[in-house]
């Protein structure tokens, strides 16, 4: 008897290395995919530098853009993740006027990122309310 090898899980793995909740190999394969080769763009000055697009977006929209969320923005979220597959610098940088970017607080950004990892791209009718109310 040993603990589940999924990070952060304290359940017991009765057979193999994972508990019943994490034993599906399809879900594990999706979550453990290698990072995109374009993720290194996040480290460039054009994104995170003093005059980068990330800072520009947060200066323009200092509050979280999730409807009903009262928190200050700390992260910039890409509304369109196709840049990871296509390598589109234009899409990564947010389009003409940052219309492809969204300022979010840490909690809303984590929630949105996790939802996208688990369920795929968001449809317009699936917008979730903020849990900070």
Please provide a written account of the structure.
The strands form 2 sheets. A two-stranded antiparallel ribbon has the order 1-2. The chain has a two-stranded antiparallel sheet with strand order 3-4. With 133 residues, it is an alpha+beta fold. The protein folds into 2 domains: 1-33, no CATH class; 38-126. The N and C termini lie far apart (42 Å). The chain is built from 6 helices and 4 strands; from the N terminus they run E-E-H-H-H-E-H-H-E-H. It is elongated. 31% of the residues lie in helices and 9% in strands.
Separation of the first and last Cα atoms: 42 Å
| pLDDT averaged over residues | 82
* Strand order, sheet with most strands: 1-2
Total number of distinct structural domains: 2
Q: Strand share of the residues?
A: 5-15%
Largest sheet: 2 strands, antiparallel
Structural class: alpha+beta
Count of individual beta strands:
4
- Silhouette: elongated
Q: Oligomerization state of this entry?
A: single chain
Query: What letter string, H or E per element, gives the SSE order?
Result: EEHHHEHHEH
Instruction: Tell me the Rg in angstroms.
Output: 18 Å
The total of helices stands at 6
- Which ranges are low-confidence, i.e. pLDDT below 50, for 5 or more consecutive residues? none
Question: What's the helical proportion of residues?
Answer: 25-40%
């Amino acid at each position: 008897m040993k603990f589940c090898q999924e990070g952060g899980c304290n359940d017991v793995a009765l057979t193999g290395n994972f508990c019943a909740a994490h034993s599906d190999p399809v879900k594990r394969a999706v979550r453990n995919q290698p990072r995109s080769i374009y993720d290194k763009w996040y480290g460039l000055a054009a994104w995170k530098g003093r005059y980068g697009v990330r800072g520009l977006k947060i200066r323009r929209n200092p509050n979280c853009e999730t409807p009903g969320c009262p928190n200050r923005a700390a992260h910039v979220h890409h509304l369109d993740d196709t840049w990871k597959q296509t390598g589109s610098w234009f899409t990564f940088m947010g389009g003409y006027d940052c219309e492809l970017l969204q300022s979010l607080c840490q909690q809303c950004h984590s929630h949105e990122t996790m939802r996208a990892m688990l369920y795929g791209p968001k449809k317009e009718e699936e917008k979730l309310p903020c849990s900070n109310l």
